[in-house]
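Give me structure tokens for this 549-residue protein.
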Amino acid sequence: MKTKATWPIVVAVRLAALALAGCAMAGGSQPPAELKASQSFGGSSATPGMDAVIDAAFDRFWAAADAADAVARAEDLVRGGVSFDEAFRRLRRGRPYRPQTTGLVRLTNRTPDGVEHHFAVTVPETYDPRRTYAARIHLHGGVMMRHTNVPPAGAGGVGALTGDPPQFYIVPFAWDGAPWWTTDQLLNLREIVDAVKRSYNIDENRVVVSGVSDGGTGAYYVAMRETTLFASFLPLNGFWGVLANHDLRVDGPLFPNNMRNKPFFIVNGERDPLYPTEIVEPAVAHYGKIGVALEYHPQAGAGHNTQWWPRVKDQFETFAHEHPRNPLPDTLTWETANTLAFNRAHWLVVDRLGAARGERPLDDPNLVASGSRLEFGVRSSGNRITRVVAGSNAERMGLKPGDALVRLNGDTAHIAIDAEEIFDGITPGSTVTLLVARDNAPVELTGVYDPTRVDVAPRPLFDRDEPSGRVDLLRHDNTVNASTHGVTAFTLLLSPDQFDFTRPITVIANGRTVFKGRVEKSVRTLVKWAAIDNDRTMLFGAELHVRVE
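Here you go.
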């Protein structure tokens, strides 16, 4: 039975966080010249007694069990009177980590929709809590053959697919009731990453998602719906076309546009009986066409297995090492149909959907080129011609609406096969003889089969049954240029590492300046997003709410 996910706790966390935050508002007909957020303090704590209060508040904050708990404890930091600079310094330094048991650790997690998940973490034998470690999330295959949430005996490692550098391996488990292509598993990944970062010194900018077979397909799914946590995606023996299968009841909608945010390392086998390179490569070409950064490594003669791993391992690990996450990228794009969940990419949050004044059409990476076809010039129902295109090869040959094709070059035309299909096996340039029934009389026609090659309109890969909106961002210095489509409001999360708060910030949406002014840093905003993100490298000092209308 398929799990239907809801997001009551996720939404509650977000609403509680918004209640804590001081923020700025942009847009409308008269944007303010300067905005005041909640109170910000300069310098460090005023007295040794206050230092003790702040120390205690941070101890409680670091001890939070999860993001919701951390949001609740964040207000203690504000009430304690910590300055922005002191809070920023401590958040950048992060929590103290303690030595931990190494080797394979088995854990469980219950997602906000009430589903229990098992996962395993392999801790490096040389784990030192004083240094950071990369983490690889490995999504296993064979999902639809598993009928319970309990992992098979002995499962939990990545087997032979290990690399040489000491790193964490995180293995979640999926089954037919909660496969990788469900909202529930996205919630699961979020909470797993958060939990692991609270216990182990993980490098937030080196968390990658990989997977084999169904897990490789799952990596594509994650990239189209969640990007902020991850540095790159490394699908092995997977294929995104699986996600267009209606029988799998994939949670969606899916947005190929979102794959543009992170690089991909893709491996497929030439003789894979499920996803051979001949069907994968057109998709890989499409990724490149729409601007996805990728490395593609087809494996000659390989089937649906990972026997090629010894040849690929060094390239795989080098790719992961050379593509750390940029926590505050200057370019971003995100498309979503839900403004309560999965509506964020790093420092961009999509708040409201709808048509906005001045928006222009954006390219649609969901449209996949269908190539070309031969146009003879007839339309038919079965072998009976219903229309002849003016000026076409069929018209020049003498065919007319109402004709029923009886024979082609002496071969009988089946009454149930459309006339266009009957001509499929004919070589262009060859002479053909047709026998048609016209007004209940036989008519013989002869001519040269000389169809025109025409381009086929691109087709949507993933069906969309609800409206969506997209925002593209480009930051240069203190100016942000936004192009939107189907979005009337969005929020920019402003980091002191990315923006100079001593100077005005300018936001241009669809060619129109919607905000220009100073924005003040807010302790409340800083600790709120630190609670949600649990990320030392992605800290935000203010929110700027932009109305595109």
